[in-house]
Automatic annotation (TrEMBL):
Swiss-Prot/TrEMBL keywords: Dipeptidase, Hydrolase, Metal-binding, Metalloprotease, Protease, Zinc
Pfam families named in the record: Peptidase_M20 (PF01546)
UniProt name for this protein: Dipeptidase PepV
Record GO terms (molecular function): acetylornithine deacetylase activity; dipeptidase activity; metallopeptidase activity; zinc ion binding
Gene name in the database record: pepV
Organism listed in the record: Spiroplasma helicoides
Length: 450
């Protein structure tokens, strides 16, 4: 089947954008749950919306009893082709940092702003409507097509754990939550807690998730004026409110900590500079602050998939104990346990800091010469005219890790302009159009069995 770009964009794109706005307006980030409720009401709402949309198109649909996941099937072929999307988002953070309210999506200067417009609600709708165009125009895939909707990608992944435990795995498929042209490798991801007991006279608190650079932390304790002087020297913004000193940073995705500024790290660096002797202060200031590969501890772990990166997401330090988290992205060929987790655990003993591994995400690796990578590359080149870009490796962890034979395909075009997990998240309208065209043409090629 030949995709008619004019019909695709003129008859399907505007509705896809409107449906994107509808689900972006639902604040589906993780919060405290009502007693007896397995998921937040907004999670149920956004999942139900997508399922009802697919049902209105004639798909067979399913939602798990606990609303952790749902899916929509088209066709009854023997093999299953999956498109795994996620409907949860990271928290909006400090609302005052948004130029437009995060859950009131709006197109401004050719960009659709709102939390989740890019990660992952916009790409989800572009895929749904790309496929709707295909079946409306007579396309019959050789696979049953299954859109899988997860609800905890940004946190626990319990949605896909439940899916894999209870449902049929896909024979082939992709995840529109990575980068273009195609992601042939995804690094290991390790979430770890650094904890310890230490009596002190100050408190620091900030961050909400492991996989985003914290951009605001509070400080309560002595030497506030000295701290402010040093923060000014480093051009670190701060303010005082409710008897606390608030230090500001710049949020960024956990796989791109070098694009952000961890408020926690800046503060601990300053505390060390003015003589604080807390073990966490000393460790972070010497080995972690503005040092994303931490080579003094790990050495150079770089391979073809890139180097190691470390992101601090959460800090909770009080007068008796402390918690400090790292989200590590570890090159594919490395031994994540021996070369990172165990090495750091041994290193921290000199500071009386304990390390606990909270989560490990497996790596993903496809041959650049395999059929799926070659097919995706050919469609990407046809649509964009870009014959220079090559399959890439990323530090980000996508649902491609949740089951075999899944690959991350899109939806980010320009990593340097990434707004995933950042304030004022947006996606360009022109990029949404390119997504829709790429996914429509790719589904034609990928879902026909030779």
């Amino acid at each position: 089947m030949k995709v008619n770009k004019d019909i695709l964009l003129n008859q399907y794109f505007d509705e896809a954008v409107e449906e994107t706005k509808k689900i972006v307006s639902i604040p589906s980030y993780r919060r405290e749950l009502a007693v007896g409720s397995p998921v937040h009401k907004d999670t149920r709402k956004v999942l139900s919306h997508c399922i009802e949309l697919c049902k209105s198109w004639g798909f067979e649909t399913f939602i798990s009893d606990d609303y952790k996941y749902g899916y929509a099937d088209y066709g009854k072929k023997d093999k299953l082709f999956g498109i795994i999307c996620h409907l949860d988002v990271v928290p909006p953070g400090n609302i005052s940092e948004w130029h437009n309210p995060p859950f009131q999506p709006k197109v401004i200067d050719g960009k659709l702003f709102g939390r989740g417009t890019f990660d992952d609600k916009g790409p989800t709708m572009m895929n749904l409507f790309a496929f709707k165009y295909l079946i409306d125009n007579g396309f019959e895939p050789d696979y049953t097509i299954r859109f899988i909707f997860g609800t905890s990608e940004e946190t626990t992944w319990e949605c896909m754990e439940a899916y894999v435990k209870n449902e049929r795995l896909c024979d082939l498929g992709y995840v529109p939550d990575g980068h273009f042209p195609v992601v042939y490798a995804e690094k290991w991801i390790s979430d770890v807690d650094l904890t310890g007991n230490f009596n002190c006279d100050f408190e620091i608190k900030g961050g909400e998730v492991y996989n985003a650079v914290n951009d605001l932390v509070s400080y309560k304790g002595p030497k506030t004026e000295e701290i402010k002087v040093e923060l000014k020297k480093l051009n670190i913004d701060f303010f005082e409110k409710d008897g606390l000193l608030w230090v500001k940073g710049i949020s960024s995705h956990g796989s791109l900590p070098f694009k952000g500024v961890a408020a926690s790290s800046s503060l601990l660096y300053v505390l060390n500079k003015i003589g604080f002797t807390h073990p966490l202060v000393q460790f972070v200031a010497k080995y972690s602050h503005d040092n994303f590969e931490m080579k003094e501890i790990f050495g150079d772990l770089t391979d073809e998939t890139g180097g190691l990166t470390a992101c601090n997401g959460i800090i909770d330090l009080n007068k008796e104990k402390f918690l400090y988290t790292f989200n590590f992205r570890i090159p594919c060929t490395r031994d994540y346990d021996k070369e990172v987790n165990q090495k750091l655990k041994d290193f921290l003993k000199q500071y009386n800091i304990e390390l606990t591994v909270k989560k490990i995400e497996d790596r993903v690796y496809f041959s650049k010469d395999g059929d799926i990578v070659k097919n995706i590359m050919s469609v990407y080149q046809e649509v964009t005219g870009d014959f220079d870009s090559q399959p890439i490796a990323i530090g980000g962890g996508t649902f491609a890790k949740s089951m075999p034979n899944m690959i991350a395909f899109g939806a980010e075009f320009d990593l340097e302009e990434s707004t995933m997990h950042a304030y004022n998240e947006y996606v360009k309208i022109e990029d949404l159009k390119k997504m829709m065209e790429i996914y429509a043409k790719s589904l034609v090629k990928l879902t026909k069995i030779k």
